[in-house]
Amino acid sequence: MKLEDIESLWQQDCFIDRTSLEQESLKIPLLHSKYYKIYLREKIQLKAEEGEYDQFYKIKHEYYTGKLSQEDLAQYGWEPFQFILKGDLSIYLNSDKDLITKLLKLQVQREKVDFLESIIKTINNRGFLIKNAIDFIKFSNGN
Q1: In this structure, is residue 88 part of a structural domain?
Q2: Structure confidence by residue, pLDDT tens digits, 88-138
Q3: 77, 114, 117, 138: which has the fewest C-beta neighbours closer than 10 Å?
């Protein structure tokens, strides 16, 4: 699921109808279930992305240190890389476009998981918000 899709869903679901607070209160478990399911899928995807990044980082490390096999070079369509100094290795790895692309993808996935965690915390607090709104209405009406 795209981050924009999650944002759009939450923009619709975050609204609390002040004229129907009892219905809003009953929606809390449904919202929690909905977003927790999404969260679990995205968290699993995050673990997969982290593993994929780590594996690719290792391959790039072997490439830049000249340890990548001819078979692997052929698989990726890369030419053998000249030996570099160990101190320069981080410069090459940190500026590698393929690694940057994978890291960006990983970071977007982390942002989705963080956003979903925030949504779930908000849903968990929704009951208190609704109770406060009810208490305020009672107070405003003199009860």
Answers
A1: yes
A2: 999 999 999 999 999 999 999 999 999 999 999 999 999 998 888 888 888
A3: 77
Domain assignment present for residue 133? The answer is no
- Using alpha carbons, list the distances in angstroms from residue 22 to 2, 17, 26, 123: 32, 9, 6, 15
pTM for this structure? Answer: 0.85
CA distances to 87, 96, 109, 123 from 2, in Å: 38, 25, 9, 21
| CB-side neighbour CA atoms (13 Å) of 135 | 6
Residue 123 CA to residue 10 CA, distance in Å, equals 11
Measure CA 56 to chain center: 20
C-alpha 124/C-alpha 133 separation (Å) is 16
Give residue 15's region: left, alpha or beta (phi > 0; psi -120 to 50): beta
Spatial distance between the Cα atoms of 4 and 14, rounded to a whole number of angstroms: 15
**Domain count of the fold of the chain:** 1
44 in a structural domain: yes
Is there a domain that residue 110 lies in?
yes
